[in-house]
Specification:
Length: 96
């Protein structure tokens, strides 16, 4: 699996990988930073660009970064990444 090992055993992360692939978990659109760059999460594997035709295809984070950047000329990916786990957990809390 193309993710940091510390994530590979995390239940929320496994849930994310499985549920996005199956379509159960729909991730919200990308957040942008102050420069309007797209913010990717650590361990994020799926493209969230609206209308992406390969949004259920898993990428390594580095490849995802390149993939997302190719969607549009005005899409630039921010250098920093934040934690996916806390992000997933926030989303789950919101979903409840
Ligand atoms: Zn895409």
């Amino acid at each position: 699996m193309g993710c940091p090992t510390f994530l590979a055993k995390h239940p929320a992360y496994l849930c994310y990988v499985r549920e996005v692939a199956s379509g159960e978990l729909v991730m919200p659109e990308y957040e942008r930073d102050e420069k309007n760059h797209v913010i990717l999460q650590v361990g994020e594997q799926y493209c969230r660009y609206l209308g992406c035709t390969v949004s259920d295809h898993p990428y390594l984070t580095g490849n995802l970064r390149k993939h997302v950047g190719r969607h549009s000329e005005d899409v630039q990916v921010a250098d920093g990444v934040t934690g996916l786990i806390s992000f997933i957990e926030q989303e789950k809390v919101r979903a409840w």
